[in-house]
Design a protein that fits this description.
274 residues; Spore Coat Polysaccharide Biosynthesis Protein SpsA, Chain A; 2 domains; four-stranded mixed β-sheet; 36% helix
């Protein structure tokens, strides 16, 4: 919440902040109330609801939002920029993607560069994985045609981008500033190998089933490989012939081979581990 100070007083009249307290027990509601008084130049709305997961919380915020653009930020991460100058500069865009700074133990662990998504080719990119975290994007609200799938407790942002291709029709990549600071720790959702594997498999299965006849051979193979990686993460057997999925994204294929060969070591190297 302190990071809201990144938004200037001049930008404040154009910004709507919606905080969703998803059944927390850490006093978040009281902190939010105090911030509303301190940051009086911002319109801050607090929504309190029972715990239902990240996707449901984001949907609650989306349904309440009235602005033309939206930006998602998790509670344990920091806003690092003022979005209004970029919205004005790129008012024609459908989405704007930024770098992220990843912190671990109070130090910069990695600066994550944004990946461009070519118009008309978003499935080429997203069938292979999710290259840009949700807090890297400013998104035009009217380009969102499908909400987050609330029964996907993990990997919900990956499925969200796959389901909303209009976001990438006129997508702009900005490299001059980071949009957010991500704090890596053992409590991050991304640190749970088993559940991430479970939902990686579920997302891949859903897209393969829902987009029958719409996927290229390469895109289908990418999704099958992701399904296989998800099963390896869960300690399950992979589908027969998974290594024959070609053509496919070469980086993803190498990742599959790496999981086959040294899954346990990859788990130990996971940057989200505290």
């Amino acid at each position: 919440m302190e990071s809201l100070r990144s938004i200037s007083a001049e930008s404040g009249e154009w910004v709507e902040v919606i905080m969703v307290d998803d059944g927390s027990d850490d006093g978040s509601a009281g902190v939010a109330g105090a911030m509303k008084q301190e940051l009086s130049h911002l319109r801050i709305t607090l929504l309190t609801r029972r715990n239902a997961g990240t996707a449901a919380a984001r949907n609650a915020g989306l349904m309440r939002a009235r602005g033309e653009w939206v930006f998602f930020l998790d509670a344990d991460d920091d806003l690092a920029f003022d979005p209004i100058p970029y919205i004005r500069k790129y008012s024609f865009a459908t989405g704007i993607v930024f770098p992220l700074v990843m912190m671990r133990h109070g130090r910069i662990y990695k600066k994550r560069k944004p990946v461009a998504i070519p118009p008309g080719r978003h499935l080429d990119v997203f069938s292979a994985g999710n290259p840009n975290m949700v807090s890297a994007y400013l998104v035009r609200r009217d380009c969102i045609s499908r909400m987050f799938e609330e029964d996907f407790l993990y990997m919900e942002d990956w499925l969200f981008w796959i389901s909303n291709p209009r976001v990438f029709e006129r997508s702009i990549v900005c490299t001059d500033t980071a949009s957010s600071v991500i704090h890596l720790h053992g409590g991050n959702k991304s640190s749970d190998f088993l559940l991430n594997g479970t939902f990686r498999e579920r997302v891949a299965e859903k897209v393969l089933n829902d987009a029958v006849g719409m996927l290229s051979r390469r895109q289908r193979n990418n999704l099958r490989i992701n399904l296989g990686i998800g099963r390896i993460q869960q300690g399950r057997k992979v589908p027969a012939g998974i290594l024959l999925c070609w053509p496919s994204d070469p980086v993803l294929y190498i990742k599959l081979l790496a999981y086959f060969i040294m899954k346990k070591r990859l788990e130990r190297l996971d940057p989200y581990r505290s």
